[in-house]
Each structure stands twice: as C-alpha cells, then as structure tokens.
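$ fold --in a.seq
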Amino acid sequence: MTTAARPAPAAHFSVLRGIAVYKGLKVLLLLALAYGEVRLHDASLIAKLLVWASARPSGLEHDVVIRLLQWFSGLSTSTIHTLRIVSLIYAAIFAVEGVGLWMEKRWAEWMTTIITASLIPLELWELFHRPNFGKAAVLMANIGIVAYLVWQLQSKHKAASAA
C-alpha cells in the first residue's frame, strides 16, 4: 500500500492577515520614530538638518520639515524620553496584535477590536480640531477594521453556538 503525498494547502491571505500587515507597518513606523527620536536628540544633527533644509527650495515640505525640527529642538529631555517610551509601547502592542492576527488567533481579534475601537474617539477629536486627509484615512481604516472584526467575532460566535 503506497501513500500518495498530499499537496500542501494553498496559501490564503485573509482579511485578518491584511490587518496584520497594516499593524506591522505601524510597528515599523513607530520604531523608525523611536530611532529618529534617539538620533535627533543630538543637537548638532538638528543643526545640520536645519542647514540642509534651509538650502532646499521653499515649499510645503520645506516648511513642514523646518517646523518639525524647530519643535523637536525645543523639547525637554524628559519629553523626548516619554515620546520614545510611548512609541515603543505602541509598537509592542501593535506587534502583538499583528502576530496574533496573522496566526488567526481569536484573542488577537478581541484585543485589536477593543484597542482600535477605544482610539476612534481620540482620532475623531483630532480630525475635527486639525483636519487633514491622512487623519481621515487612518480613521476610516480603523473604523473598517473594527467593523470587520466585530462581524468576524459575531460570525464565529454564531458558528460555535450552532455546533
């Protein structure tokens, strides 16, 4: 009696994995922010960046870079450390959510639903006080994620109840 090898299951990319990738991108951005906070703590680097930005043509990007560098250079050391710690904490939370969602774990669905839903009121407040396209896009993505995860969790609950 011979046993035929079973073909490997086709890789499937679910919505949960798409959300996991989104969370992974947030992790990368937050880690880059934390690294940037470490690098920009050096006053000579800020001075070099200001000189570099001043030599560039004027425009929206130029003004934004100059304002950000001036704002950052005025922060106290304790504020910079706090920003770095908060960035790393959020990165850790998003990493846990992303890995759990990639592995299609139910606890990750609950965790992501609760955390993402809890941030929506803050995102709304921020959007109303300082509206821009980026904030609106993030808000819409997070509302979509919460709606999908609530639907997903309800579907799984109904399926478990029926069984």
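$ fold --in b.seq
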Amino acid sequence: MSAVARFDLKMDVEEKDVVSRAAALVGTTMAAFVRTAAKEKARELLDRESRITMTAQDFQAFTTALNSAFTPNAALQNAIHAAREVKRA
C-alpha cells in the first residue's frame, strides 16, 4: 500500500463553490476533483519543462555538431592529460 500524505488547502467561498459545482458535474468529491486537476496540471508542466524546443536552424546546427568529428579544445586536452597523470601516480 502506498503512503498517504495530507495536504490542506484554504480557498475563498467563491473558489470553493466553483470547485464544488465542477466536482458534482463529474460525480466526484471536491478532494478527488482537486487532486486529479492538480496532478494533471503538474504532469503537464513537468512534461513541458523536460522537453527541449529549438528552431529548425538550431536543430540543424545541433545535429551537425553531434555528427561531426569531436576535437577537444585546449582546456579539455589539459584536463585529460592531468587526469592521466593522476591515474599513473
């Protein structure tokens, strides 16, 4: 069985009336209605924030960079050399 956590919510009378009427329309309790609506909105937001969007031009530059041969810059070459030295020690 999953753990249960409590979440208290205060709302004004008008908000409560709107939520109560909406919950009644779908045949559920206010708590279930709010829980479902909050979970749907949270998942939508988390899904949207986990995606990277870019223009076609940016996507082309990205794929070109991924498909091109990799050449480390001087700083990375120095770091690789230093790591090899530490490994030998």
